[in-house]
Design goal:
Blueprint lengths: L1 E3 L1 H11 L19 E2 L5 H9 L15 E5 L5 E5 L3 H7 L5 H6 L5 H5 L5 H15 L4 E2 H11 L5 E4 L4 E4 L1 H10 L2 E3 L7 E4 L12 H15 L4 H8 L14 E6 L2 E6 L3 H5 L7 E4 L11 H4 L3 H7 L7 E5 L2 E11 L2 E8 L5 H17 L4 E6 L1
Parallel strand pairs: 1-10, 15-16
Antiparallel strand pairs: 2-4, 3-4, 5-9, 6-7, 8-9, 10-11, 12-13, 13-14, 14-15
Helix pairs in contact: 2-14, 3-9, 6-7, 6-8, 9-10
Length: about 375
C-alpha cells in the first residue's frame, strides 16, 4: 500500500486545484469539473482570480456564455460549464429514496414526515417549479407560486418571511431538475428557465454519480468515501453503488484513504507548492471535507471555518497559514490579514500582490492591507 505524508498530499492538491496558475483559461481547466461555488461575496470570481494566469475582470463569470449558475451540489449555487449541464443534471438524480432523503440534509425530518418517498417529493417539486418559472422571477415569487402547486406537507411556516412556503432545501434540489437556473449577480436571488430545458429525467444513473465522486477524489484525494459523500451532500452508504472501481488505497500519515489509480504518479511526485494565494470563503481548496488534513490544529481550523461568516484563507507554500477579510468603502477595498505564524517579508509582499489582484477582480480601484 502506498503511504504518503500529509505535506505530500497537500502539495498534490495545490497542483490539482490549479493554484500554480498553469491554465490560461481556468474555465476550461479541471477547476470547473465539479463546478465553482458562489456567494454574494464574489467567492467564485475570487477563486477564479487565484488560479488565473492573467487578470480577471469583474464580469468574467457573469458575461461568459460558456458558464451558467445553478443550484447543484448540496443545493448550493455553483457556476458550471454550460456544455456539461446535461451530465450534471443526471449526476444529481438520487440513486434511490434513501439517497434522496439524505440529500435533504437539515430538512430530512420534515421531508420524511410527509410519508411520501423522497424521490417522489423531489420530482413533484421539480415539476411545479418547471410549471411556474417561464420567465425571470425572484426566488420569493417562485417559492410562493410553487407552494400553491404542491401538497401542504411539502411546505412550512417561515417566521422571517411571515408566510408558508416550500421547504428551502427541497426547492434548491428540485430547481435544476425543473429546468431552472439562477441569474448571476442578482440580489435578491432570481430564477429563470434554462434556454434548452429538454425533457425532465428521473432515472438514476450510478455511472454519472460515480464520475462526480471520482472528480472529487482527483481534486481532493487521497480521501475517504465519507469525504466524497459530504461533498455530494448525501450519506456515505448511499454512495456504495457509485463508488469508482479504479481506486487505489493510500495512507496519509496513517489515515486510510483512496485515489484514482491514474493519479498515483502525480501524488508521488507533486510540484513544490511554493505559491502564496488568498483563497476566498467557499474556495474549492478549502471545501474539501477532511478539514483535519487541511488544518490539523483545531484552534486554527476554527478560525478558517467559522459557523457563520467564514473568512478567506491565506495559503503559503502548501499550508493554510492564516485568514483574511475585506471591507469595502466607496472605491477602496480594505484587507485585514491575520497570519497564524510570522511570515517572511517575501510572503507578505506576495500576499499583498494577491490582494491587489482580488481588489481589481471585484472592481475596486484602490486597496489597503493591514496585517493583524
Amino acid at each position: 500500500m502506498l503511504e504518503v505524508s500529509r505535506k505530500q498530499a497537500m502539495a498534490y492538491r495545490v497542483a490539482r486545484h490549479g493554484l500554480h496558475r498553469d491554465f490560461a483559461d481556468p474555465v476550461a481547466s479541471p477547476l470547473f469539473d465539479l463546478g465553482l461555488q458562489d456567494s454574494m461575496r464574489d467567492t467564485a470570481l475570487l477563486a477564479l482570480s487565484a488560479r488565473s494566469s492573467s487578470p480577471v475582470e469583474p464580469t468574467s463569470l457573469v458575461d461568459d456564455p460558456h458558464v451558467v449558475l445553478v443550484w447543484s451540489h448540496r443545493g448550493a449555487p455553483h457556476f458550471h460549464r454550460r456544455a456539461a449541464l446535461r451530465e450534471l443534471v443526471t449526476s444529481l438524480i438520487p440513486l434511490d429514496d434513501a439517497d434522496a432523503l439524505a440529500r435533504m440534509l437539515w430538512q430530512k425530518k420534515e421531508i420524511g414526515a410527509t410519508g411520501v418517498p423522497a424521490s417522489e417529493v423531489l420530482f413533484t417539486a421539480a415539476r411545479a417549479i418547471r410549471k411556474v418559472v417561464t420567465q425571470p422571477m425572484s426566488k420569493g415569487a417562485v417559492s410562493a407560486a410553487a407552494t400553491r402547486e404542491l401538497p401542504p406537507e411539502y411546505s412550512r411556516w417561515c417566521r422571517p418571511c411571515n408566510t408558508t412556503h416550500i421547504q428551502e432545501q427541497l426547492m434548491r434540489l428540485a430547481t435544476l431538475h425543473g429546468g431552472v437556473r439562477l441569474e448571476a449577480d442578482q440580489s435578491p436571488a432570481t430564477l429563470a428557465p434554462l434556454e434548452d430545458r429538454g425533457r425532465m429525467r428521473t432515472s438514476p444513473d450510478a455511472a454519472a454519480v460515480s464520475r462526480v465522486v471520482r472528480g472529487y477524489l482527483v481534486a481532493n484525494g487521497p480521501a475517504t468515501q465519507g469525504d466524497a459523500a459530504g461533498f455530494v451532500g448525501t450519506a456515505k452508504t448511499a454512495l456504495s453503488a457509485a463508488w469508482p472501481d479504479d481506486l487505489v488505497e493510500v495512507k496519509v500519515d496513517g489515515r486510510r484513504a483512496f485515489l484514482p489509480a491514474d493519479q498515483v504518479a502525480a501524488l508521488e511526485n507533486p510540484p513544490t507548492p511554493s505559491v502564496v494565494r488568498l483563497l476566498p470563503p467557499l474556495d474549492p481548496f478549502t471545501q474539501a471535507r477532511d478539514k483535519a488534513v487541511l488544518v490539523p490544529d483545531k484552534a486554527r481550523a476554527k478560525e478558517v471555518w467559522k459557523i457563520l461568516g467564514s473568512p478567506g484563507a491565506l495559503l503559503v507554500d502548501g499550508e493554510l497559514m492564516g485568514v483574511w477579510r475585506t471591507r469595502g468603502s466607496g472605491k477602496r477595498l480594505a484587507f485585514t490579514v491575520t497570519a497564524f505564524d510570522p511570515l517572511r517579508a517575501a510572503d507578505r509582499a506576495a500576499a499583498e500582490e494577491e490582494a491587489s489582484r482580488a481588489a481589481a477582480a471585484r472592481g475596486y480601484a484602490d486597496l489597503s492591507v493591514t496585517w493583524a
